[in-house]
Amino acid sequence: MNRIAVVEDNPDNRMLLHAMLDDVYQLEDYENGTDALAGLTSSPADLVLLDISLPGMDGLQVLKHLRDRATTAKLPVIALTAHAMTGDRERFLAAGFDGYVTKPIVSDAELLSAIEHHLARN
Amino acid sequence: MPLSWRVRINLGLALVLALLATVGVYSLISIRALVDTDRWVAQTQETRSMVRSMLALLTDAESGQRAYMLTGDTAYIEPYIRAVNSVEQHFIRLETLTQTNPTQHDRLEKVVPLMTTRLTLMEEAIRVRRHYSDAPVAQLLHEDRLVTDSLRSALDDMDHEEQAQLTPRSERSAAQARRAQVLVVGGTALAMIIATILAGMLRSHLERRLLSEARYRGLVEALAEGVFVRDTSGRIVECNASALRILGVSRDELLAMGPGELVCFREDGTPMPLEERPGAVANKSGGTRTQVVGIRRPDGEMRWLLTSASPMFLAGSKQPAGITTSFSDITRRREAEAAVHDQREQLQDFLENAGDLILIANADGRVLFANNAWREALDFGTNDEIIGRPVTDFLAPDCRVRYSGQLDRLLSGESLRDVETTFVGKSGRRITVLGNTTCRFEHGLPVATRSIFRDMTEVNAAQEQLMLAMEQASNANRAKSDFLANMSHELRTPLNSVIGFASVLLRNKQDRFATQDLQYLQRIHDNGRHLLGLINSVLDLSKVEAGRMELEIGTTDLGALIRETLGQMESQVHGRPVALRAIVPEKLVPLRADTGKLKQVLINLVANALKFTEQGSVTVRVSADHNGLPRTIEVVDTGIGIPLERQEAVFEAFQQADNSTARRFGGSGLGLTITRSLCQLMGYRIALSSTPGVGTTFSISFDSAQPIVVNPVEEIPSDQPRVLIIDDDSDARMLLAQYVRDLGCVPVVAGSGPTGLEAARRDPPSLILLDILMPGMNGFEVLQAVRNDPDLASVPVVIVSVIATENRRRAVGAAALVNKPVERDEIETVLRRFVAEAPADKSGQLGELIRRTVSAHV
Description:
Chain A is of the alpha/beta class. Chain A is built from five helices and five strands. In chain A, α2 (33-42) runs parallel beside α3 (59-68). In chain B, the strands form five sheets. Chain B has a six-stranded antiparallel beta sheet with strand order 2-1-6-5-4-3.
């Protein structure tokens, strides 16, 4: 079972992801970027679902740290965000995210296909 | 010193006369002498003949006496008696003849007694003989012989004496005659020679005089100036052709005119009395008088003459022999001068009253002129406070330093453009101006620097205000964007839970719920999604209306776009008996458009049609003109239709034809609003026609002059000037386009700043009519882009807006300003001002007017 790191400060959203994905993946929750960066060092994941609006370090900064570390430089990171204005998608992909899924997640199929796509590619 | 011809002629004449007088006097003397001599010779001859006659008488008397004595015949006495009788007379005559010659007279005194004695002796003898017939004749005769011989000898002496006197006297007379001859001939010849020379001199002098006169006459006739000469009585006696031409009279008429018959006027138009006229003044003063005189010609024309009169003197005379008057026709010059004067005054007036600050200084930088605007700006009341003062007196200290450098540049022939300068007014107020200065040169020397300034104090303030306002607007816009982004984010986050959990339950946990509960779950999920759609639409609409939506113009294959769109939307038919189809002409040229947004419009319209069509068809139909240029896209459905009174409202936000339809058909109620906004952004017109129960047709038309619709192969050929209209309001565009067309120009319209700029760059227009309030790129930004584009910088831009003010116009550098609502006349005025190559106009002379007006401006 692939391990997915979820970096999300909103407990409802974490619960929703578990509801959607627990059957398929092993999820590791992090409530903020600092925890996530620490946790990913000790227990590596196959893919990261990274929220953008996080307390303290935001998603973009977390990504930058991940990309700066040799162990996580190639780790697939999908932005899972409510930033869904025109141009946001391009902005995040340009920042180095591998995928971009907007909240609200209209169907779990959309999320699953994105995750599968990036896992397969790796 | 050479003698004058006059003196020479006089001297010559005097010589001739003297010669002739000499000849005459000498001739007279000679003739007298000759007459004397002649008389004298005659007297001598007479004397001699008398003497000889006496001798003959004596001989006759002796012969007769002798014969009588011998014969006694008295017949012989007769000659004797005749002789004796004549002797007396002869003696009396000789007495007279010898009166002047004492010698002869003395001789005659001796002859007379001898003769008397002889005659007495003879008479005695005769008497003797008569009485004594035998008297001793021989003795008697012999006695007589002695007396006779003495007498003969005395008479011979007399004769010889006369003879001796006659010869030298004849010789003297002949010599005198010869001398007289020589003198008369020589003197006459000399006189003739001198006279001939004199005649030659006179003739050559006369010829010279004639030639000189002819030359003078030619000279005078050739003068463009009129000339006439008055005699002392004031009558005109001589004139040239120009005088006749200028005065408009014939020679005879002019010469017949009495003094004062020419009516003269002063320069102010009042009649000029006789004594004021130049001729009269010159005559009185004895000097030259020059003045302007007006005359009325016989043909009624008024002429102004610059007249100069001088008295004319004969050589050596102090009394004028006449007055010479010359005059040139200065009527034209006076008129021209008057016109120049008027023009100068007008110009002065313009300068004085111009709104701009005008300052003229000499080459030393001292003020020659400052106009009213300048004085007012610097609080100076009169020119006296300014004229002659150095310009630097009025400059702010920092500008004074620069001024000398600027002056040097000006004096070297450079023109200064857009130089900012700060003056300090009388009250110490600083006035910042922007201006151009040039230097005027005369004969290569700088004469004056001329500056035109615009008071930028207010403009700068207005510009700052404008910048501030734009900054504020920009900030507000940014705040709005941030707000929208935050709103979006904050709304999406809870929706994530609503939709997400509902979908998880619906998918994975269906078996746990009763059918009713599942339906509830489904409603939660659907309404969550509806809410999400609403949020998306509201954000889209906000972006369009906030002008944050930008067009990305590319080449669009309309047929392919429609087919692709319909393909994606087939799923929305949901198995209803609705045919989804496209009708596209085979020949269709590519369209320049924002493909993505056009597709969104199509999706919205098709989705809308599908939503309201239970059965039948939804058709997307493209119509094009004969060139394959797309004209309209129609979306035709056979749905429920829209009642007439609701047709306009469907485009309003959150309005559907019927409130109940929202419940029945779903949808945000924003789709058509967004569609219309997008169409307006792209410059398209959207309209609908509908019959309830039959169907609805939405139609998008590409304006005929739509710049986005271009034929890449063949441009619409036109030599008429093109006017680009940039306005987001399609009605305003159409109206402006109509006006522009009416005025003989080709309108090119664009619905937004970027499309307008693109159209302008593709083919720079003659003029741009620019709206300010436009979504996305506003008019000021468009203008900035136009000014920054080297190809477009020179294109005049006229602002057509409700919000523009003159200050803003100036600040942004637009050529002119037209306020909305637009009047046709205003557009005509700006076209006349700024469109250089206006063609022949539909309404007649306008094209020519435009050309003239424009060239006058240039």
